[in-house]
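Run log, item B.
One chain of 375 residues. Sequence copied directly from the ordering sheet:
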Amino acid sequence: MSSVPVLVAPRRTPIGNAGHGFADLTTTDLAAPVLREVLDSLRGSGLVAEVDDVVLGNCLGPGGDPARVAALRAGLGAEVPGVTVDRQCGSGLDAVMQAALRVRSGADELILAGGVESASTAPWRFWPPVPGADPVRYTRAPFAPHGFPDPDMGVAADDLARVRGISRERQDAYAARSHTLAAAADFSSEIVPVGDIAKDQRIRAGLTEARLARLRPSFGADGTATAGNSCGISDGAAVLAVTTETLAAGLPALRVLGSAVAGSDPALPGLGPVPAIRKLLKRTGHDVADLGVVEITEAFASVVLAVSDELGLDESVICPQGGAIAMGHPWGASGAILLVRLASQMLREDGPALGLAACAIGGGQGIAVLVERVS
């Protein structure tokens, strides 16, 4: 029998700048306290059900199934399994999507899902040695095979800005908005402190367009992406409980209306959310005008602006409390962080009724999830 999946108990760590506050913490160290807090929140609210699985997204971890390792560290019990998902920057959102589909199918009743990334402790990786040559270290695996475009994301963001005519000035204006909104927001209710860190580390007040305009391009002398209008490399984790509407009765919750993934041009991966969002809205019978809030991973200002232009989104509903440009982008966790952010905004007394989360993914993919507030 199918069940309506809902998201409850959204929590996340602070987002740390790579190499700083969480410099010595592994994916296990980051994910375990959030998993524990989510489960304790459920138990405290009276929701009693066995945890069927833990599903976490992760990109650059050590392998060995970080979700299972973190579940054990969190004290969930040896009987609680775990599985790790890799869809690069969309991993955390994909983990929640997979959990929601399993709950909808009736196969499971309660899954803890989200994502985690520790860029600080990601292991060094080397291609297999070639006789007579030194091992070659690589920082990322290919996003596409030989014969396809495979640009780094920063280079691709610059290319996207050129192709779509998105000026440096417009990118800086969007980034200034993100920095200003995040600096003014209070995220404390969604954050699980880790050690002595209880606030996002990257957020800085006072980053105006004028100050951002002084920054040099990061990915080429003629580029427009800078350290100020792009995300920072970050560490963090986010988890939500995915369960049935029946079990969560009476709790603040977001109903999962649908989800979609799509492929797109590997040369311009920033446009990946466009076909995914279109597919999702078509499936659910909604239009962009229905969306009260949209959380898109702000990897680069040019990406968010290109997606907004293509879909005709109202920019005022995009990341209304700032996003990854201001807060940071812990790759495997970022998609789940979007859902935590949606929950914080939508579950307010006057919060919007319908929200969407979407990520652009290296290699030309997009993922999107549509949620509504449960009355």
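Observations after the first pass:
- The longest helix spans residues 27-45.
- DSSP finds ten helices and twelve strands in the chain.
Flagged for discussion on Thursday.
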